[in-house]
Amino acid sequence: MTNTYDDNAPIALVTGANRGLGLAVARQLAEAGATVLVGGRDSARAADAATALREAGLAARPVTLDVTDHAQVAVAAAHIEREHGRLDILVNNAGILPEATTPDLERPLDLAAFRSTFETNLFGVAAVTQAMLPLLRRSPAGRIVNVSTAMGSLAEQLDPESPYFGLVLPAYQGSKAALNALTVALSKSLADTPILVNSVCPGWVQTDLGGPDNRAAAPTSPEEAAPVVARMALLGPDGPSGTFVDRAGPLPW
């Protein structure tokens, strides 16, 4: 086991990284040579996840980060600046899906579900990105990856032949469609910089996001889903920006 850190290694922050897909992405980025900052709203769980990565010989440190707590986001950005001076990779992975885990919602328009979902899935991403952008601008090759879903594709929602046509999760789907719009806006705003911004659908993943039945039903493990996210986080200078992709390639917006 080694706990040494390479000052020249890419610095990567992954939100919601103490378990599931986020932890798998953090592990794969660390295996690729990055120093990974394991973001998690529960400081103890983030610390445990970072410790597990370090015990595997990987460079990882915990960062307490509830994306809905703007004061905590600011503290995290100040900590990263103090410790590392820059940020090379931001993976906005943290997300929630209360429509799948709260049986007593007023469907299809439960305003509380809309507020909480957008607070994490959209406003949280915007807050974290805004706070980290000055650090990403210091990177010679900044990368922002927004973890989205094909369920947020308006084209897929309107296509009777799509496997997502029958899903009616308007708060979640709306938050991810808005996240995709944010990806496009950021990519255009940052077009004159080395920063690349993309949305990625990792597929239907065996995580707690969709409730207790999701692990049994989902076909893809976090370890199988993580490579497409890590690949977009490690794009070279000629890589795309402003795209929406999954493992098979581009997705319709």
Overview of this structure, please?
It contains 9 helices and 8 strands. Helix 1 (20-31) crosses helix 9 (222-233). The chain has one domain: 3-Layer(aba) Sandwich (Rossmann fold), CATH 3.40.50.720. The chain is globular. Strands 3-2-1-4-5-6-7-8 form an 8-stranded mixed β-sheet, with helices on both faces. The longest helix is centred in the middle third of the chain and has 26 residues, at 111-136. The protein has 253 residues and is α/β, with parallel strands linked by helices.
Number of domains as seen in the coordinates: 1
- How many strands? 8
Give the proportion of residues in helices: 40-55%
In the CATH hierarchy, the architecture is 3-Layer(aba) Sandwich
Mean pLDDT: 93
Strand order of the largest sheet: 3-2-1-4-5-6-7-8
The CATH superfamily appears as: NAD(P)-binding Rossmann-like Domain
Strand content: 5-15%
CATH fold-level topology = Rossmann fold
- How far apart lie the N and C ends? 44 Å
Q: Outline the biggest β-sheet.
A: 8 strands, mixed
Secondary structure class reads alpha/beta
Which SSEs are present, and which pair or pack?
Elements: E1 11-14, H1 20-31, E2 35-40, H2 43-55, E3 60-64, H3 70-84, E4 89-92, H4 98-101, H5 111-136, E5 143-147, H6 154-158, H7 170-189, E6 196-200, H8 214-217, H9 222-233, E7 244-246, E8 249-250
Parallel strand pairs: 1-2, 1-4, 2-3, 4-5, 5-6, 6-7
Antiparallel strand pairs: 7-8
Helix pairs in contact: 1-9, 3-5, 5-7
